[in-house]
Fold Aminotransferase class I/classII large domain-containing protein.
Amino acid sequence: MEVAKRLEKFQKSRETINNLKDGIINLGRGFPNFDGPEFIKEAAIQAIRDGKNQYARGSGVPELNIAIADRFRKDTGLPIDPDNEVTVTNGCLEAFAATVLGLINPGDEVILFSPLYDSYEGNLAMAGAKIVSIPLQAPNFAIPIQKLKSIVSRSTRAIVINTPHNPTGKMFSLGELNAIASLCIENDVLVFADEVYHKLAFDVEHISIASLPGMFERTVTMNSLAKTFSLTGWKIGWAIAPSHLTWGLRQAHSFITFSNATPLQCAAAVALRAPESYYVELKRDYRAKRAILVEGLKAVGFKVFPPDGTFFVLADHTPFGLENDVAFCEYLLKEVGVLAIPCSVFCLNPEEGKNLVRFVFCKDDETLRVAVERMKEKLRK
Ligand SMILES: Cc1ncc(COP(=O)(O)O)c(C=O)c1O
């Protein structure tokens, strides 16, 4: 009951987003308004025609597990065992849920950096974890290493990291990752690393914490097809972890979804074999979108925190004089016709996010330009 109450606030904000009136420009929710690549959609259609329509192996269709392992080796240099160290899940979100439900006992302490992707809190509440949150602050959202050092102890079970980071667009630096790694090794702590935006790293190289010395054996790395291939509705994700951690998360996975859509998994294997040029073009297109939105928001009068990665931008709304982020977003929706998300929904302590709002740029260039024009016209300082 207590958990259900904690989760209620997420349902309400999702309902608002799902019931938008016609004509509202949705720069709120993180899904593209353009489609995924033809070659992947064709592969799914072909798989359906080829009769790949029955339950898949619980840990994933073998060809997809192999493609995930190959991609991970290319990205990190780590050779992994596709059968015993890769688990296909219902998106990155289920990878996180299975990890938490499989590896966290009630009362275990888990450290989160706030603001954070909202489902972490829900999943950790379901597992009965004791959440300890560390705020990240504008302008650079750096990890307060001294504070982290004072909190991590032998009673810490896990640290959750998300790089590139939703909603700030921050990318964890090598120095920050090394500091987290040495604390984890010293105190025997696990890392749950959500890397769903790893191919949307614009200015800084993405580093998987699992690739640092001594870290693979204590890390679950999570990812999915959603953002890299503009296929958020497919919900094909995965968790990569050493076999002793994989065993735990698979126990939970087998009672959450057991297995996921077979033909989409076959197509995901094709997606992960995309040539490197695909990723180069993806980044080029998103860089251009980031420029349109960041420069546009500055011209409107926001103080903007340009992201190093992801497709999110945080902006300080206080020049417009509204009481807080929720009041600002309500005004923006009703009077301007643009949806943004109040940053306080991503914070365990809502006070921390009250000056900021999150916009997305996973929309076609014209939509981004029209949204900026609307704000220029109708938002008064
Ligand atoms: C940080 C983060 N992790 C996970 C997800 C969910 O990924 P999927 O759709 O693959 O479950 C999202 C979606 O917005 C996200 O922002």
Q: What stands out?
A: The longest strand covers residues 156-162. The domain at 38-274 is CATH 3.40.640.10 (Aspartate Aminotransferase; domain 2).
